[in-house]
Amino acid sequence: MSTADFLQIKSAIEEMANKIPLKPTEYQISVERNEFRLELRPANLNAEIMFGIIRLCKKHLENWRIHTLDNNFLSLQALNENLFDTANLLKNIKVRASDLYNERLVEISKHSLPSQAELSLISSLIEYLFQNNEVKNPLEKLEQMGCLIFKPSENQLDFSHFAGYSAIKEEVKRTIVLPFHHQDIFENIGKKTRNIGDSNFPRSILFSGPPGVGKTMMARILAAEAKMILIAISLENILSAFYGESSKRLASIFDLAALAGYEYGKVAIFLDEIDALAPSRNEKLFEATRRMLSTLLRKIEGLEKSGNYLTIGATNRKEDLDAALLSRFDAIIEFPLPSEKDIEEILSLYAKHLPSEDRKTLAAELIGFSPRNILDICKRAERIHAANIIAKKAKENSLPTVQEYLIAAKQRFSAKSRESL
């Protein structure tokens, strides 16, 4: 398979797509290990449409074997013209359609480039799947796939909701928020200082730190401050029991996010526990994990070349991440456990009634706890005080004392010690 021949086929399919017209997120043409692959992502793919796919396949090529057919999955492969000839059968064109977990995908593949008859079939399938079949709302589809969507109008968080960590907040403002508000200034500087035309704009960042330090909260604040739609993806949105489906679900989520950006403006994709999706290739990886890592790298790189997109990864195991993925991030922001000064500021948010001296005393006892632990301690203290009011051990309208916070901290420390055993 020569590069020139592949580019000719690719150009022919792109011409078919432009006639509909298809959006870039609705199809993808690739060659991997000498296998041609075309992925189509229609808005609808019910049982009736799957039967229509079979009819079109039989119209263009007479002999087919249907491997699987049910309400949401179809797999068929072309046979040789002579049905008794089984030579090179596995190299014939295959068509696979699936509507699993609200992800609709039609995949056409072959261990060589498609023939003219097969190109005619591809053209018919594109027309059949996409005419009057446009994706109406990519954000709705992402929600159906389990993603959380935070729109700027609904995401009312700002930096005042994140106590302490002044250096981290300043870094996020300077390296991420400001460029999205003043894109022309950043790009103009890049044009005047470098001969290479690539952008100095941040496209992907990594938040690294132990659990409970506020990585997810900062992603929401960042998106709100930059006036971006935030699409939050967690592991359960992606992982599938079906072999190979996880990488396809991940690709579909990125494609829909790109479409959302095309329609609505600036979009941030937040990938929590990214280390589970992209472990180091120094470790022994299953083939499905390798495919998912490859998909993630390809999709992040694709968004980097697009407009107003930002990928945010979060991990508490940065050392386990794949080196190629780490190199993709424009910035890696470390979230340590809070300092004593940070804890005082956190307490001014969660125990604002305490005098400054009491907050200082309490902060000294809470070193080593994460902000999430500290919030839990404050809630425990409130429950202790409520119980004391009910038991007539405290006045009715009084508020928790520093002693009750210290008792709550001791209880939480005991629980923390048990968790580490």
Compact overview of the structure:
With 421 residues, the chain is an alpha/beta fold. It has helices spanning 3-19, 47-60, 116-130, 138-144, 166-181, 183-193, 215-225, 235-238, 245-264, 274-277, 287-304, 323-328, 340-350, 356-365, 371-390, 402-420; strands at 27-32, 35-40, 64-70, 73-78, 94-100, 103-110, 148-150, 204-208, 229-233, 267-271, 309-315, 331-334.
What does this structure look like?
The chain is of the alpha/beta class and about 425 residues long. The protein has 3 domains: about 130 residues, TATA-Binding Protein, CATH 3.30.310; about 200 residues, Rossmann fold (3-Layer(aba) Sandwich); about 80 residues. It is about 50% helix and about 15% strand. The protein has 16 helices and 12 strands. It has a 6-stranded antiparallel sheet. The protein is elongated and about 90 Å long.
CATH topology of the largest domain: Rossmann fold
Helix content: 40-55%
Strand content: 15-25%
Secondary structure class reads: alpha/beta
- Top CATH class of the largest domain: Alpha Beta
Q: Mean of residue pLDDT?
A: 86
Q: What radius of gyration results from the CA coordinates?
A: 27 Å
Biggest sheet details? 6 strands, antiparallel
Q: What would you say the CATH architecture of the largest domain is? A: 3-Layer(aba) Sandwich
How many helix segments? 16
Number of domains: 3
